[in-house]
Amino acid sequence: LRLAGNPCGSFRLANPSLNCPLRHLDLCHCMLESLPPDLVKLPLLQRLLLEGNPLQEPYASLDKRGLSYLTSYLSDLIQGQIDVKLPGKLFVVGNSGAGKTA
Fold first, then answer.
1. Could you read off the pLDDT of 14-73 as tens digits, one per residue?
2. pLDDT of residue 98 exceeding 80
3. Could you write out the DSSP letters of every residue in 15-81?
4. Which end of the chain has the smaller Cβ count within 10 Å, N or C?
5. 85 in helix, strand or coil?
6. CA distance 49 to 17
């Protein structure tokens, strides 16, 4: 399936099926930053092309290592074996001289 050049920014399998015969998936230059965990539900997938996407970590590193590393990570993510750390910000508000900078 060739979806290359479609700057959608995200990708999701609408109805993932373990019986899907998809073997090749081209998502080059789609502006993807991450991948849906449902990709592991494509057991016949042999080739996943992701060049030209601003993939965030760990997806960028895993893509360089190969499809088996990506699917293993996504499988662990689905099973809850990986803690996803989301960035956060803490704002401390209060009157001046209240000790916010301690």
1. 776 666 788 998 999 999 888 888 888 888 889 999 999 998 888 888 888 999 888 888
2. no
3. S--TT----EEE-TTS--SS--GGGGG-TT--EEE-TT--PPTTHHHHHHH-HHHHHHHHHHHHTT-
4. C
5. coil
6. 20
| Token pair for 11 | 């990708």
In sequence order, what are the beta bridge partners of 24?
47
What's the Cα-to-Cα distance from 34 to each of 19, 30, 31, 92, 98, rounded to whole Å? 24, 11, 9, 31, 42
Q: Please name the helix (run of DSSP H) or strand (run of DSSP E) that holds residue 87, with its range, or none.
A: none
Is the sign of the CA dihedral 54, 41, 12, 25 positive or negative? Answer: positive
pTM to 2 decimal places: 0.68
C-alpha 56/C-alpha 32 separation (Å) is 9
Instruction: Name the β-bridge partners of 47.
Output: 24
